[in-house]
Amino acid sequence: MKIKIIVLLSVTVLLTYGCGAKDKESASSEDQKPTTPVTVTTPEITSMEDEVTLNATSVYILKTDIKATINGYLVKSGIQLGDKVRKGEILFRIQTKEAKSLGNEVNKLDPTFHFTGLNNILCPANGYVVMSNHQKGDYVQEGEILATISDKNSFGFVLNLPYELNGILSINKEISINLPDGKKLIGIVNKIMPELDSVSQTQRVFLKLKQPANLPENIIAKAVLVKSEIKQAITLPKQAILSDDNQATFWVMKLINNTTAVRVNIKKGIEKAGRVQITEPLFSGRDRIITTGNYGLADTAKVSVQKTNNQVQ
């Protein structure tokens, strides 16, 4: 009987020790599970604008043809292509064949008379010479085009606005125009052309510059128009957003405690300046979202928080 009791006690001790060892091994395994160092941020409520970018081309919408007013010879033609001209400046001087002959005879009879019979043609506006057809000494006929002047005050940008976006012009009092060299200008809607392109269904809109600029024609710039504005948008840095290969499903990794991150599917809204609007779910300012170290993390991953930022640069 004593032997049986001793054997039972021995078995009990061995089982207890074995279970304790297994529990210790399991706890040790949990403690040694690898963790990923991460940086986290919290959602911010900011104002977001939904924008559309369209091409805009620089143009002088007013060009004036300088025409000969009489038949005769050009005795003055001091302009060349690209010259800057001022309103009231003498561009051409014409003398008829008859005036030239008569002037010579009159001057022979009375040199003090100084008869010339010259006809001056003045510049109608400030601008630039974009076409010059004649030089000094040429014979021209009445009504013939001598040059073409682009009116400096008519400079601006023309954009082709899709008709379905016509309504957004009322909320775009000033439009940002981004030039290829990085410069930014401000345009104001000046004219809306009363016709629609039948193929592209776009309408031409002329933007007058808020500040004068010395620019050539045919620059292709980017005009940025605001489609809508959300005053209270929940946003996260773009680095916090993960997606599948097809960009069909989006999610973030959210901390549920100091060491565990879970996957949360989201729906995106507007993207601007490195931030993304989150329309679903409605995160609060206390939620902690991983911004770095999140790529490739599995659901319910072990993490180690290295840094917390309100905004990741």
Account of the protein in words:
- The protein is mostly beta strands and 313 residues long.
- Among the domains are: 95 residues, conserved putative lor/sdh protein from methanococcus maripaludis s2 fold, CATH 2.40.420.20; 75 residues, OB fold (Dihydrolipoamide Acetyltransferase, E2P).
- It is 14% helix and 49% strand.
- The chain has a 6-stranded antiparallel β-barrel with strand order 2-11-14-13-12-15.
- A hairpin with a 2-residue loop joins strand 18 and strand 19.
- It is rod-shaped and about 105 Å long.
- The two termini are 78 Å apart.
- The relative contact order is 0.20.
- About 2% of the residues have low confidence.
Write down the CATH topology of the domain at 33-48 and 231-309. conserved putative lor/sdh protein from methanococcus maripaludis s2 fold
Give the fraction of residues assigned to helices. 10-25%
Let me know the largest β-sheet: 6 strands, antiparallel, barrel
How far apart the termini lie comes to 78 Å
Low-pLDDT residue spans: 24-30
What is the CATH architecture annotation of the domain at 33-48 and 231-309? Answer: Beta Barrel
Q: Number of helical segments?
A: 2
How many strands?
A: 21
